[in-house]
UniProtKB/TrEMBL annotation:
It is found in: Endoplasmic reticulum membrane. The chain crosses the membrane at residues 23-44. InterPro entries: Ero1, ERO1-like_sf. May function both as a monomer and a homodimer. Belongs to the EROs family. Its cofactor is FAD. The keyword Metal-binding does not apply. Keywords: Disulfide bond, Electron transport, Endoplasmic reticulum, FAD, Flavoprotein, Glycoprotein, Membrane, Oxidoreductase, Redox-active center, Signal, Transmembrane, Transmembrane helix, Transport. This is Endoplasmic oxidoreductin-1. It comes from Basidiobolus ranarum. It is a peripheral membrane protein. PANTHER family: ERO1-LIKE PROTEIN, ERO1-RELATED.
Length: 454
């Protein structure tokens, strides 16, 4: 009797299991598949860019398409766009060459202005430093010098001044033992997550170095400045009445800031998809809706283009030796193509219009002192990768200003002193020009994204 009851219980359990398998397993599978699908959907179907929100509908056909003459230059926007279309691919190939991709600098200087108590610990903030064995031997010879003097107590790198009277920036001493080798291609300038009060403090310090009048940021969140008229002078005074030197300094700083913002937004990390790509909302909020910021990027491009033209003979004679003759010849050929294309244009910027009156020497020295301080401020940046590109681009701009305002044209002629500029200055100059070139190309891509929203 007991065995019969046990058998009946087992039969009931078996029936229950069959019912569960028949009716509930499909429901469970559907539930699991649905959950997995919701998780994977963004990775499979989303684009790298973050969904655009709070951006006006594309009713403005001139969005990020400035026309006419670029203020305080000798060229128009269309000319710069045409030039950049021809030069951008060549510039990219140039900065990927061994000579221009390797850079030595001190990434770990103390901030000279305030205790640098914030350091970004995100992985994207880190710089991948090269092992010295990876650096081509010929470049290492250029990046270091040995002091054989009796007072050296052995072989020590030559100590150099941070700057000379002609310099607009504090230069990197490539012979310093504190320097590290960096491959710039492996450390691209892009979104790192370094933002908020620490980044705001850097840009505020940069703008406050304007040597003519204090500049006020719009807000910590926006991290940029008021337009030139309202930022530097009383509202009653028009921008046209401010001195050219004042406007140039402001445009250089604003254009650099806007260009960096474009790079961040163009290579933005999408936390939803886990991919890198353009973020139109970021671009629109930081740069796109401000015509003056877009114009100042073009202004910087024009200034650097003029510097390249002025020193073209010097650059054509420079020894771009990296230890690989084939690569060095290719580098020389690419640079010659860039210089030939740029020289076909009339001068984009008239540097002789600045510092031209009786008080110009005092004004120029103030300009240089404050621009040097901008380069020093880069040592206060708490993100190593941001610091790297901040140093390179302020050095590149400072080198362009040195070429334009510290030397007459004949200094860069056929008989120019080959040591007129350090290797680090030339590398920084061309990499910075490429950064502005990429910014202008990115602006065109973001404009297309805007118009494609229709």
């Amino acid at each position: 009797m007991g065995e019969a009851k046990d058998a009946e219980k087992e039969a009931i359990k078996a029936l229950r299991r069959k019912l569960i398998i028949k009716y509930f397993r499909p429901l469970f599978i559907i539930f699991i598949v649905t959950r997995i699908g919701k998780f994977l959907y963004p990775y499979i179907f989303s684009s790298p860019s973050i969904t655009v929100i709070n951006v006006p509908k594309p009713t403005d056909q001139n969005y990020c398409n400035p026309m006419g003459l670029i203020a305080d230059t000798s060229c128009d926007f269309k000319t710069i766009n045409d030039v950049n279309e021809n030069l951008s691919s060549e510039l990219l190939k140039l900065v990927e060459s061994p000579f221009f991709r390797h850079y030595k600098l001190n990434l770990y200087k103390d901030c000279p202005f305030w205790p640098n108590n914030y350091l970004c610990n995100r992985e994207d903030c880190n710089v991948e430093v090269m092992n010295e064995a990876e650096v081509p031997e010929e470049l290492k010879k250029k990046l270091g010098a040995i002091d054989f003097s009796p007072a050296s107590f052995g072989l020590q790198p030559l100590k150099k001044c941070e700057f000379t009277n002609r310099d607009f920036c504090v230069l990197e001493d490539e012979s310093s033992q504190d320097g590290v080798y960096v491959d710039l291609i492996k450390n691209p300038e892009r979104f790192t997550g370094y933002a908020g009060p620490p980044a705001h403090k850097i840009w505020q310090a940069v703008y406050e170095e304007n040597c003519f009048a204090p500049i006020k940021l719009i807000s910590a969140a926006n991290d940029h400045v008021l337009p030139m008229t309202n930022a530097l002078v009383d509202n009653a005074i028009e921008e046209d009445e401010t001195c050219l030197e004042k406007r140039v300094f402001y445009r250089l700083m604003s254009g650099l800031h806007a260009s960096v913002s474009v790079h961040i937004c163009d290579e933005y990390f999408n936390q939803t998809t886990g991919q890198w790509g353009p973020n139109f909302e970021c671009f629109h909020e930081r740069v796109g809706k401000y015509s003056d910021r877009v114009e100042n990027i073009y202004f910087n491009y024009a200034v650097m283009l003029r510097a390249l033209n002025k020193m073209s003979l010097y650059l054509q004679q420079y020894n771009y030796c990296s230890g690989n003759p084939d690569e060095d010849n290719k580098t020389k050929e690419i640079l010659d193509n860039i210089l030939t294309s740029s020289k076909a244009l009339p001068p984009a910027f008239d540097e002789k219009a600045l510092f031209s009156d009786s008080t110009s020497n005092i004004l120029k020295e103030e300009f240089k002192d404050h621009f040097r301080n901008v380069t020093r401020i880069m040592d206060c940046v708490g993100c190593d990768k941001c610091r790297l590109w901040g140093k390179i681009q302020t050095t590149g701009l400072g080198t362009a200003l040195k070429v334009l305002f510290s030397y007459d044209d004949h200094k860069f002629g056929i008989r120019a002193n080959p040591n007129l500029l350090q290797r680090s200055e030339i590398v920084a100059l061309l990499n910075t020009f490429n950064r502005f070139s990429e910014s202008i190309s990115s602006i065109q891509r973001f404009r297309k994204m805007y118009l494609d929203q229709v």
